[in-house]
């Protein structure tokens, strides 16, 4: 993940006021999306993050507004990475 994107992700997670350590773990998972070298790897990384979020949702560990923002952050990261992969290799799209 680029330093700029890593910083943006950290800032967005910091605004969510997550319990100690959660932002760091979610950042690691989101970095897997950004580091994906293929569309399939990107989608698999997205699924992993969404699975963690779903677990938090089912456990009612966070309020629904925060859960929704996490889903949106994940979707935006994956969409951006997929667009970048397609730009780098137009045959993918």
Describe the 3D structure.
This protein has 93 residues and is mostly helical. It has one domain (3-10, 21-92). Helices cover 76% and strands 0% of the residues. The protein is built from four helices and no strands. It has helices at residues 3-14, 22-35, 39-58, 64-88. Helix 2 runs antiparallel to helix 3 and helix 2 (22-35) runs parallel beside helix 4. The longest helix has 25 residues, at 64-88. The relative contact order is 0.14.
Structural class: mainly alpha
Oligomeric organization of the protein chains: single chain
Shape: globular
User: Which residues sit in consecutive blocks of at least 5 with pLDDT less than 50?
Assistant: none
How far is the first residue's CA from the last residue's CA?
22 Å
Number of strands: 0
Cα gyration radius (Å): 13 Å
Mean pLDDT: 88
The major pleated sheet works out as:
none
Discrete helix count: 4
Binned, the helix content reads over 70%
Topology pattern, helix = H, strand = E = HHHH
Q: What number of domains?
A: 1
Beta-strand percent range: under 5%
Question: What can be said about this structure in brief?
Answer:
With 93 residues, the chain is mostly helical. It is 76% helix and 0% strand.
Question: Topology of this protein?
Answer:
Elements: H1 3-14, H2 22-35, H3 39-58, H4 64-88
Keywords:
globular, 93 residues, 0% strand, mainly alpha
């Amino acid at each position: 993940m680029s330093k700029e994107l890593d910083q943006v992700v950290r800032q967005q997670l910091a605004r969510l006021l997550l319990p100690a350590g959660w932002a760091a773990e979610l950042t690691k998972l989101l970095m897997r999306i950004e580091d994906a070298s293929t569309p399939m790897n990107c989608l698999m990384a997205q699924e992993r993050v969404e699975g963690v979020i779903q677990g938090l949702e089912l456990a009612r560990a966070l309020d629904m507004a925060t859960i929704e923002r996490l889903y949106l952050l994940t979707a935006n990261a994956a969409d951006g990475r997929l667009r970048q992969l397609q730009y780098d290799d137009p045959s993918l799209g």
